[in-house]
Structures are given as structure tokens and as C-alpha cells.
């Protein structure tokens, strides 16, 4: 739905009025002056005043932070921001994902008064218009507290008051866009007006909203090649849903929750997890290659170390920091699947100016809903506790770092008193780091950890280690969320500085070198896997992360003679290929819920420790006890990652116009193990009409009966529990498309297209009448031996609205999940995707070389689901 758009001049008139009402010392807003923006900024640095005439520093922001921020899953959200920020598009995305209605306040105003805001203002004057808008706003907010997405761009005082009241019970989100993008979008000749409007609106909305989301536009960056059009909106959609899921309680987005295995295991529950520390200025660089910097990391820490510099050097620079932090959090959240930590460095507590600026930045950062934020434990408890109380779902790391040679030893009681302070603040983690001064410091830290574990009160997980070369040992041995430098930094600097930390690759290599981790042997098993691309792909991942495991293909006529490989103490795990995916269940002692539901496995991992009652531990435990360890194998655990790969490709390829709704239909071709994984992926995405075509009707019937039975089970986990009226329909090619079923927008062909099985490359095409979707859809051919299948050619000829994908798209996606099971580490996605494309050798149906080149180029834009 589209909002009522006001002419741009009307927007400016309105905001000129508004600027007059704003309090001068804090904002320094004067729309009559023109400013020239600096690239990437939301407003001009020279205009924002933060130092008063008398020399005292005022608050950079007016923190508005209601403490009640525990929203119910159905709490309506209100999106506010200026025209052009993309509120309506985002509202539609949220409404589809959460199954809610959108209400545009401009339309509500028109319906209530019979006038648009502009006409009403012309007829009754500006004050009357503002009052009526505020009334409409209050009425609509009161009536629609649950189950809606509301959109509003009114900024005047009475509207702001209504926003603040609503924010005490519901999420009120300020939507921003970079100045360059708004400028381009609105095509206004006087650019300074746009920049001034942005400056004012940011200040206004920051004082009446609880959250802020930067709607990053790819076109805002002139140096970056834009992604293909069908992907541009997907990036925005994924980014926004990821942001919303950090605000709403877990489970609020049943069809878009993260499904990668490590996403379900908190960083502190795994062994050796790393937060790669990226300086704010690096993240904001135009050509910043995010993946290169986060290889092997489990979280990304944005380190804001600009406070000292800014206060001394440049007030204007300081005033830009909130915008920069917003932009950096946006980029990291959009470009990775990793949790985001914001770490603002407080250089000194002697200067009140610095502490004040520090607190302002903390208030601001909490608005961005990062997964974690650090608070410096030197700051007084009353200032920090207000921030902690407003944290919503953000976890708090009580932080203390001493980097000078006078820093107190670990035996000093001051560390213990800071730990107690963190307990009082109800921090979720404590992080203590100090410059290592002797090798003995690494031993002292162990006794310090023991001392902490004896402290009365809540047992807050402790992250503690020594910095610098003398501290590397303790940093490597720290169990979770160790701060590390990006690998690229190590490569760039020939002589590591004393403060430079270890990288994830260094740490991983050190764990293997010191026998904490052991090199293991992995396989892909199948009847004919000599040409499998998995070995090249997974090995590329191992190498990039500094992991010395080996992965090899092993073709075999049967699974029965593999026992010696599966029970070898060095066995690390295996991918299971065609035709063993169902039979491989018989090798396992326990299956994941997904593998059980699908009735097929494609991943087997060893279990080295059983529970005391002899059962296999929870999946999350396996990462800790079995990954990267040799030793006697007590059992095998079976998982299915094919559905994760198929789900990721469907999500990536479905345009917002084809977003899954109650009537979406999926068509599955085939009835083997991959067809089962596909049906399961469709159910997980909320597709409720599933049509199956298979040459042998009896096999299709058995698949349908399998899933019908599954959906009848009580206590199904979400989102399967939502699949109430799911219909399964078996159709043969000579039948017409059923009248009461929408044309399919998701088509997945699961026929193996290598020279196995049927012995045929598929020549299958669908009746033209089945391809009736006017908005096209996505067709995925799961095989990758033959890329240009008849089906893919058929839909490509039909219309550009059909997006086609093949096994070269699905293989890495399922491989990422497998890599996590095999190593307990996040996969380097681009490297693995690239390796698959580079290693591919076609059997027939040669893809044009330039087509492959194009695919390699697009690897940069592929979504991270
Ligand atoms: O289906 C496949 C392909 C595969 O078997 C291969 O040969 O690379 C690897 C499996 O993990 C995956 O499920």
C-alpha cells in the first residue's frame, strides 16, 4: 500500500515551523542557513552545536528512553520518519512477515477529516492541522495497540508527545536513510534543504522514539556496484526483519527465524568463541569487505575509540558519532549473520565532558538494539543503571580494561569489587582485560577466575585475559567472546604492535598446535561422489579459518562397508549424498528434530560423550564435547541441512511481490529424500498448498502420508504448529492445474540430474498452463551436474519474472550449516561460494563462460540467511 505523499515543498514548510519550536542550545537548528554535507553523514557536522557559550558540553542527544521495553509478540509497531525514508516499504515487509495490517496515518487523517494534511492546513491553518493530526494519531494508536504496523511522518510537538506515550508500551522506531539516498530519491534542486530537514528530523525523532533503523540504500554508495534489482529489496527486507527480531521476543517471526545450528547456541555456551573488533571508521569505509574481516568470528564488535580524539580535536566530529554508529551497526547487521556488539571506549573518567559524551553514545547505541553492548564499570552506578534498565533485549557486558604498565595485578582486590559492581548492575557478562607484563600473568589469571567463581551472588560469566604479546596465551585459552583483531589487520601490519591482539585464525591455529583441538577426517559418502564439489568447498572453508581437518569424497555401492571409517577415532563427520540419505538413518543412534521430521539425513557427526543414562546429549552440547576432538566414538548423530539450503534459496529468490502468504503454492517434482527436505523447507516458510509431481505415483503417496502424519502430531514446534490447513495434492503432467489452488510461485525440481539413477539428464518440462503466475516466482533445480535443464530454460523463456537457481546455489547454503556442525565455527561464505563456482565442471548443457563470470560477481550480493 502507498502512503499519502506530500509535495516536498510542503514537507519543508512544515519543518521550518518545527525548527522554530526546537530548543536552541541542544540543536542549533536553523533551516534558513545552508550547509554542505560531508559524504555518508545524515547531517552537516558544522551545524550541530554541542558546546555552549560558557564552555560546558551539552548532551549530544536528548535521550528518550522509557524503561518499559518488554514488548509482547503482538505489540503493534509504529514506524516514523521523513518522507523518502522507506517507511511504507518496510511496513509492508514487516506486515507480511508478522501477518499484520498496515495503517498509514496520512490515510487515517484523510478518512477522518475528508482532507489530506496539506489541504487541511491550507483551509484551517497550521495549528489546527497539528491538533487534529495529534487527535487522529492518539485515537489510532489507542485503538490499534496490538497486531498492526502503523506509519507516520508527523513531527510537531503534539505528535511527538503521542509518540512518547505510545513508546512506553510499544516499539516506536525511527526510520532513517542516508542523506545522499534521500537527495537522489526526492530530486530536489536545493540540496541543503534536504540536509537541513534530515538534521532537524533526526533530532526530533530521536527525542520521541525508542529505536532507530537505518534503511541502507545500495545506491547511496557511488563506488559500489549495485546488486541485481531482484536482490536490492531482499537485502532491505532481510536487514529490517533481523533488526525487528532483536526487538521482539524470540519466536515472533515464525517463518524468518535464523535456522543455522550455531544461531541457536549462545556464544558463552560454546568453546572458544571470538568477537572480532572492527574500528568504527573501518566499517564505514566505502569498499569495506565485511566477510574478509570477520572470517572465523562468532560476533562482530564495533569499537568506537573516537571519544578522546573528538573532544580534544573536533567537536563537530564528536557530534557526528551517533550517525556513524547507526550506520556501522546497520552495515554489520545487514552484511553478516553474526551478533553485533557495540563497544564505546571511555578514555578517561577524570573528564566530566568525556563521561557525558560517553553516556550519550551509550544511550544512542541502545536505540539500535545491538545484541550486546559494553558499559565501562568505572562510571558511577546510577548513570549506568538507567541505561541498563532501558536495554530491552540487548545484553550488557560490564567492561574494564587497563592498558598501562601501572595496572593492578589480577590479585588486586579492585578487580573483585568491580565484579561486584557488575553484579549490582545485573550485567549479563563481565569482561576484564589488562596488559600482560610477564608470562606469569597468564597463570595468575587462572587463580583469579577461581576466586571469582567463589564470589557470592549471581554468577556472571567472566571473560578475562591479558593483552599484548605476553598475554596472547591467556587470550587463546579464554573460553568465550575473546576480542580479536581482524585477520586482515594482521596481514596488513608487518610488525605487530604490542597492543595488537590475536586474530581468529591465530587463535584457531594455536588451539590445534597446543592439542586442545585435533585434526580430523571428514567424507562425503555417496554412490558416485567423485565429482562432488563438497570437498573443494568445505576444504576452502577449513583453510580460510586455519583448521587443519581433511575432507575427501568416498564413493561406495553400499553404506554397509563404511563402519571402519565411521568408527575411526579421527572421524569428524560426513556429508551423505545420493542415494543414501534415507538409508543413512540406520547408522545413527539419534536424529535432530528436523532429520526426524524429514525422514532423511545428509549430515552425520560423531558423538564422543554420552549422557550418564547412555543417551546422546542435546545438539548444542555436541559442539562443546565432540567438535574438533579425537577419541572413541560412542554414537552417530544424524542431521539434515538440505532443507536449510533449500529454504535459504527460496527466501533469497522470492521477490517481495511473491512473499509467502496464506495462498502461496509450492510445487515439488520428485519424491525422494531431497523432495522430503524441500517439502519440509516449504512448511518452515509457511507454504500451505503443496503440489507434488512424481513419475511413480506410489512414492508420491508415501511422501504425502509421511507429512500428513507429521502434521497430525501434537505439540509440534513452531512454525510447523502454524501449518493448520496445509494441503498436499498429487498431480500428473496430463492433469490441468486445480482450480482452487493458486499457480505455483515456488517450484523445486528434486530429480537427481547426474548420470545415476534414471540414467537420464532430465528433459522434464511442465505444462505451460501450470506456469500461470503473473508475478513469476522461483524455480530451483537441485542437481548441479547439468545446469541448463529443460525446465530452467522453459521458465527463463517464459518471463523475466521467474528467478532460476540450481544446485550450485543450494550446495553452499546446505554446506554452511554442515560446516558449523563439523567445526563449531561460522563458515566463510563468500570463499566457499566462490570455490563451488570455480570448481564446477559441467557434464553437459554447458553454461556460457560469461554466465559463470556473472555468478561469481554476484557472490558479493548473496544474502546471508
Ligand atoms: O546433496 C548433497 C550433495 C552432496 O552429496 C555432494 O555430493 O556434494 C553433499 C551433501 O551434503 C548434500 O546434501
TrEMBL record:
SUPFAM superfamilies: Aldolase (SSF51569), Aminoacid dehydrogenase-like, N-terminal domain (SSF53223), NAD(P)-binding Rossmann-fold domains (SSF51735), P-loop containing nucleoside triphosphate hydrolases (SSF52540). Residues 807-837 form the SDH C-terminal domain. Residues 524-604 form the Shikimate dehydrogenase substrate binding N-terminal domain. InterPro entries: Aldolase_TIM (IPR013785), Aminoacid_DH-like_N_sf (IPR046346), DHquinase_I (IPR001381), NAD(P)-bd_dom_sf (IPR036291), P-loop_NTPase (IPR027417), SDH_C (IPR041121), Shikimate/glucono_kinase (IPR031322), Shikimate_DH-bd_N (IPR013708). Residues 667-708 form the Quinate/shikimate 5-dehydrogenase/glutamyl-tRNA reductase domain. Signal peptide: none annotated. It holds the Pfam family Shikimate_DH. In the 2nd section; belongs to the type-I 3-dehydroquinase family. This is Quinate repressor protein. It comes from Bionectria ochroleuca (Gliocladium roseum). The lineage of its organism: Eukaryota, Fungi, Dikarya, Ascomycota, Pezizomycotina.
